[in-house]
Sequence to fold (169 residues):
Amino acid sequence: MMKLTTTCAVRRSKILIVMMAATFGCVTLINNFTDYTAYYEYIGEILSMATTEGNESRRYRAVTSSLFHHRFYWAIITFETIFTLCCLIGTYQLFRTIDAPRKEFQSAKRFAIIGLTTAIFVYYIIYVVIINEWFDVEYSTKRNAFDWARSNLEYMFPALIYVSLENEH
Fold:
């Protein structure tokens, strides 16, 4: 019978946290692919600033090219795919080394760390900085990605810190 030690619990919690991020990524990707048109239109409205009111001095930032909208959306999907795959691989590698010596378990975290860092990039740089700040989504009458991105960041950033820590002895 396995003895549940603190180290055992910490390692399992790290695996679970990375697996939950991977699950979120999988569901997000399924949504992006199965309802591509709706999400593409969402991104297009944001980039063209079609629903943004006020701040007319910043209207020069609007991008109305549908080709650019598709490419921007595919960039988001690509980064979300990278984050998801890295978290899936990271989950597997952590699970595989759950009973390994500390250095081996620590080394197995690399894909989980890359995945969580990529998720932070997607939700902070793309959604908060570019979409929210540059394209003024906070002034949109219809669209707001900020709260959604913030809730993702509130999970991914502490998850990255916790998973990265070498606190399993």
Remarks:
- The helical segments are 6-34, 36-47, 66-96, 102-107, 110-134, 146-164.
- The first helix runs from residue 6 to 34.
- The mean pLDDT is 92.
